[in-house]
Amino acid sequence: MAMRLFGNRVSHPVRACILLARKVGQPLEEVNVDILKGEQFKIKDLPFRKIPVLKHGDLTLAESTAILRYIADSSPSGGDWYPKDLKKRAKVDEFLDHWHSTFNPTIFNLMRNKLFYKMLFRADKPDEKVIAELRKAKDSNNKLFNSYFIKGKPFVAGEAPSIADILATVTMDQTSLIGEDLSPVTAYMDRVKSHLEGYDELHKVAMEMPVTLRKMKMIS
After folding, report:
1. Confidence of residue 168 (pLDDT cuts 50, 70, 90)
2. Lower CB count within 10 Å: N or C terminus of the chain?
3. Helix, strand or coil for residue 196?
């Protein structure tokens, strides 16, 4: 039975789920949710009114990290991406927790303030003071990622990439939409991308978002 993923490729967690499913050979039916039209607030299958949401038979998962774990554990080759080794899996889980608490909220709020200030905050221009603070936090998070989570290893769990690396890379790369400097993490991201066929094709969809928002006169 194919899994159904409610999402939009503009969303980096959605892209992470798609990339993993492709990598492990898991059939995935995408159900597009137009977030600019607010469809996430109208579709009853989205319990938290956000994306992604995975449905598989009678199972519903509404958190990105749970979806990634489930796809990996449901697929014969998924163990390569969510390692069975206890210590390696613990390092993957550690980053996924950090992603939820610290890593993603910083980037999420940076993107909101750079691209959606009119739509969300009814402001005529972005708050540069807030953006500067978020950029500083983002740079600090990237530095910590290199010094602690990678610390001389190719990937989070060691010598092989995992779901932690997919999620880290798409999250960092989301800031390329607003021209952020990714040079401190470029080498790491390139290593991860080399294992993910179709990465650039998916990311290209996200890169079109600023153009769409300009056409809607949502950003200058």
Report:
1. very high
2. N
3. coil
Specify the amino acid at residue 137: A
In sequence order, the 6+-apart residues with CB closer than 8 A to the CB of 104 are 13, 171
Over 80: is that where the pLDDT of 190 sits?
yes
Both structure tokens of 105: 């909220």
- Quick one: what percent of the chain has pLDDT higher than 70? 100
Do the bridges between strand 28-32 and strand 3-7 make them parallel or antiparallel, or are there none, so unpaired? parallel
Q: What is the dihedral of CA 94, 95, 97, 100, to 10 degrees?
A: 170
What's residue 149's pLDDT? 98
Tens-digit pLDDT profile for residues 125-154: 999 999 999 999 999 999 999 999 999 999
CA distance 65 to 216: 32
Specify the length of the chain in residues.
220
The pLDDT of residue 220: 78
CATH class of the domain whose range is 3-74: alpha beta
Same fold, 3-74 and 86-216: no
Please provide the CATH number assigned to the domain covering 86-216.
Answer: 1.20.1050.10
Classify strands 59-61 and 53-56 as parallel, antiparallel or unpaired. Answer: antiparallel
Q: Summarize pLDDT for 17-48 with one digit per residue, the tens.
A: 999 999 999 999 999 999 999 999 999 999 99
Task: Give buried/exposed letters for 183-204 (b at 16+ CB in 10 A, else e).
Answer: eebeebbeebbebbeebeebbe
Domain boundary assignment for the chain:
3-74, 86-216
- CA distance linking residue 207 with residue 184, whole number of Å: 21
